[in-house]
Amino acid sequence: MVDSTKTVPHTDDDGTGLKRSITGKQLFFYTLGDVLGSGIYVLIGLVAAAVGGAFWIAFAVGVAVATITGTAYAELVTKYPQAAGSSLYVQKAFGNRALTFLVTVSFLAASFAATGSLATGFATYFAELWSAPPALIVSLVFVAFLVLVNYIGITESVVMNMVMTFVELSGLIIIMIIGVYYVVQGNADFGTLTDISVSGNPALAVLAGVALSFFAMTGFENTANVAEETIDPHKAFPRSLVGGMVVAGVVYVLVSVSAALTVPTSELADEENGPALLQVVEQGILPFSTDLMVTIFTIIALVAITNTTLVTLVTQPRILYGMAREDVVPGVFAKIHPTRRSPWVGLIFSGLVVAGLLVAGTLVLEASGDLDLVNRLALVTVVFLLAIYALVIVTCLKLRGHDEDDRAFRANTPLLIVGLVGNLAILFWVVYDDPASLLWCAALLAVGGLLYVAEKLFGSRSDASSTTSDRKADL
After folding, report:
1. What is the DSSP letter of 226?
2. pLDDT (tens digit per residue) in 135-168
3. How far is CA 215 from the centre of its chain?
4. How many other CB atoms are there within 10 angstroms of residue 117's CB atom?
5. pTM for the whole thing?
6. pLDDT tens digits for 436-449?
7. Cα distance between residue 233 and residue 3, in whole Å
8. Ranges assigned E (strand) in 66-155
9. CB neighbour class for 457 (10 Å; exposed up to 12, middle 13-18, buried from 19)
10. Environment class of residue 447 by beta-carbon count within 10 Å: exposed (0-12), middle (13-18) or buried (19+)?
């Protein structure tokens, strides 16, 4: 159980580490905002194509598995309230630097792929307002802007995140209002909600939809990486992380139902018709100007995608920062800007990798002509994260009885077993259904290979020794 009478200092004793400034309320909206914008605005049409009118089931299953995994993160964060998240937990459990390095690189690769997918989705919505700039230029400028916001500081990033969360939630509320209004008019065909119209085994169709929808539920793991910057993480994390995921899951299911009832599934699944949720608005169901509603919703969608991408870019340099302090990646990534208190070296590195990924994806798209970059990068993200989620659950169980006090949260063990099986089942299906995703995974892991070589050639324990006192102060 969590003891609310015990708190941690707002900042590190010597002032050299990350600054504790995130409140419990801010953390809740940080989680909610990251999860809400990470896929529902971008991938709902692809999920509908995989399942049929009953695609809401895929979101329901995805959110259940993800929320169970979130309880494992909540338990581990209350034991180890430090930056680096899953990489740190694996290091604590197994003490194997090679395995920790692999997890670190895999998580970074997943985050890079997710950022690329979201940036591409941002360009798609942006084209609805202004189609003149090339999509690649829009994506690159978008990423550069968010790198700058993150450089300014974590407090500013979280406040910006909280404001954008309210905006993106308003967009999803508009979709739900459209659905309710359509039902009240008596036009809804509820049989659509049970229709799995794709060919083949219905269970496999739902599983394929879960694999895609799982991208929409990712993001909660990013919350763990700001543990070192959260006020009283032992109290804040279980409530904020799990609570934010539950709220996001309910919203996802209701939005999916609304979309399925108001737009034919075949149209939602057709990418040439534009983003799926925008199609719901374009139906003109509400008694307002359709053109005005489309413009407003497009702006809201851009804010939503910006919000999630902001959080992923917050996460990447903090993973590098945390693992540099554990001497797993080169110590240069542990550098903190003297005035902004942000891990600026890792931030620049992350921005450059995402930019390279966007350029490479665009070149492949132009060469082959049949690549769906959003779908491809989303699946790559899911492959990495599902493997990490399964390992985090195993790590949570292995660390039971270690480093615990009366402030530690404890996840339900039977549910963790269910979550482990669920993550592995979805992972198996993604790889089986789309083996080409492994090639993209391998390419991203090659970036980690470069970090590994750099650490072997130039890394030393002394790089991280100066921050050892910070780690002790945080526990």
Report:
1. G
2. 999 999 999 999 988 888 666 667 777 788 889 8
3. 7
4. 30
5. 0.79
6. 889 889 988 887 78
7. 11
8. none
9. exposed
10. middle
